[in-house]
Amino acid sequence: MSVILEVDGVTKRFGGLVAVNKVDFTVEEGSILGLIGPNGAGKSTLFNLIGGAYRPDEGRIRLDGKDITGWPPHRVAREGIGRTFQTTALFQELPVYLNLAIGYRMKTRSHILDVIFRTPRARREQKEITQRVMEVLAFTGLAEYFDRLAGSIPQEAQKRLAIGIALMGRPRLLLLDEPTGGVGPEETGRIIDLIRKVREAGITVCVIEHKMKMVMGLVDRLVVLNFGVKIAEGPPQEVCSDPAVIEAYLGECIA
Amino acid sequence: MKGKLNLNFLFALALLATAAVLPLFLQRTSGGKYNMIVLTYAMIWAVAASSLNLVLGYTGQACLAHGAFVGIGAYSIAIMVERVGINYWLALPLTCLLTAFVGFLIGLPSFRTRGPYFAIVTLCFNVIVYATFENWTWLSGGYAGQPITLPAALSGRLARYYFVLAFLVITLLVVRQIVKSIVGASFLSILSNEGLSEAVGISAFRYKLLSFTVSCFFAGLAGALFATASGRVDSSITSYLHSFYVLIYVLIGGVATLAGPVLGAVGLYFLLDRIKGLGEFRYVGFGVLLILIIVFFPRGLVGGLNQLRDWARERRSARSPGEEVAG
Ligand SMILES: Nc1ncnc2c1ncn2[C@@H]1O[C@H](COP(=O)(O)OP(=O)(O)OP(=O)(O)O)[C@@H](O)[C@H]1O
Ligand SMILES: [Mg+2]
User: Fold this and answer.
1) Which of A17, A84, A209 is the pocket-test mutation for ligand 1 (most atoms within 8 Å of CB)?
2) What confidence tens digit (pLDDT) does each residue in A70-111 have?
3) Which fold has domain B2-269?
């Protein structure tokens, strides 16, 4: 297996606060990596650094060996990294199918004159978009909501939609920031199943989670952050019995 | 969904048919002839309002300089035809391109930063353009203004009416093609959630700039039509007052709808003309109207009508409607 993502000595400071401190880790292609840590540990900040929303103060980030450090988010996305946000980000006022269609924009080339004059390219790509939307609707189990406004569908369906939007552009790596946050226990299962399906489709996943139990059965490897520092890394069982992790989590980890 | 689409289409067709036959009746009386001229100008402002809607309503960027862009369009065609000696029919597309290019140049630095920066830059731009045309009489023609000689085909009022109507229809068709497409969806995505747009590979900067440039293209067209309808341009056309008018037409008519800016512009332009006698007091009434609309119909009249329709439908079926925000 090859390394798809390489985070190399990455540091991010907010004023005096070191939110992410010289963090190193790598992600194997086709695996699921879990990123855990207490509140304020720097998990979301790390995703924002990988996704390009923030620029690291130090260190490099490489995707498939290509240095993408400091790239703006839209370029990172086009390079093959899809992501979701901790507070579910959707195009709330737009219907579900349009939310998904927007996610496919980066794969189309039609420009403004194409769409005004409905050139063959615009028509061909329009078909392609519709087809991809149908695929992802089915994949994420959102077909019943396709014409509903994204903001009006149930919370758990919104979480799946956010993943669906990120999947539209066929990313190679998917970053999920607390995909089950604020969702009830039985509905959490549906999202976990979806993440497994994503991996089976050959997409590498990095997932931030708070719920330890959920992570244990899902991920291949865990990275633990505390106060911006990586304090442990390895297979989930091993990491969970690490004294430093138990201390950080105040014994919440009962594996 | 099909039924609603047809309804919108029929409504548009009915409006177009009305606009097409109206002059035949208006032609007959002198009051009617006057109204035909008012309607010609109203439709020109509908072109300007529809163009503003693209950048304001669909992309969420408040341009406060559409008066200036209409003014630049009006002067540019008049100067091209009258002083440079370019053929009117060539000057018309050149004017649109030139105005689009000016918009592009203004957008280039101002979209680099997020937030209200763009609104402030455009407002300042409008003030500068107005002051320039006011003071540089060699450019603006001073009090007398800059006349423009029209091709023979456009010498009659009736011809000019249909000319403007045709361009309004073309503008609306183009805007419709854009907003129904993936490019329009990308504009909407920036209005809706800029951070998420970026995360799915859409460069907010590029799409804001594109939306604004296209918007200015049609503002330039509105300016060219204005020069054509009036046969003479003076510096008052570049005033920021026009920018606010156009803004109000869009807001009151309904942002992010095709019909909203047209109904807003035509309705309000007529209303303003009717209450001319009130002088400056008109603006007070205008302000009050604007506040009422924004409080009760934040999406404008057409948006409000859509809300009512959806509310009624929701009561009939428990399922909430498949909205067409892009409609
Ligand atoms: N834009 C910002 N400006 C200033 N400080 C920030 C910013 N973003 C994050 N921080 C700070 O950086 C630290 C790490 O925040 P981050 O959101 O990455 O934590 P997290 O591990 O995702 O926590 P949670 O589990 O609560 O989501 C926190 O102390 C936070 O207050
Ligand atoms: Mg977080």
Assistant:
1) A17
2) 999 999 999 999 999 999 999 999 999 999 999 999 999 999
3) ABC transporter involved in vitamin B12 uptake, BtuC (1.10.3470)
- What is d(CA B149, CA B142) in angstroms, rounded to the nearest whole number? 18
Q: Tell me, what's the ipTM?
A: 0.94
The residue type of B3 is G
Domain map of chain B by residue range?
A: 2-269
Q: Is A181 in the pocket of ligand 1 (CB under 6 A)?
A: no
Produce one character per residue of A157-187: b if its CB has 16 or more CB atoms within 10 Å, e if not.
bbbbbbbbbbbbbebbbbbbbbbbbebeeeb
Digit-coded pLDDT (tens) for B260-293: 999 999 998 988 888 777 777 777 777 787 788 7
Provide residues of B within 8 Å CB-CB of chain A: 1, 174, 177-178, 181-186, 188-189, 192-193, 195-204, 210, 214, 320-326
**Ligand 1 pocket, A42 CB below 6 A?**
yes
Higher pLDDT, B57 or A250: B57
Ligand 1 pocket residue status of A37, Cβ below 6 Å: yes
> Is it the case that residue B327 has pLDDT exceeding 50?
no
CA–CA distance, B299 with B296 (Å, rounded to integer): 9
Domains and CATH numbers, chain A: 1-80+171-255 (3.40.50.300), 89-170 (no CATH)
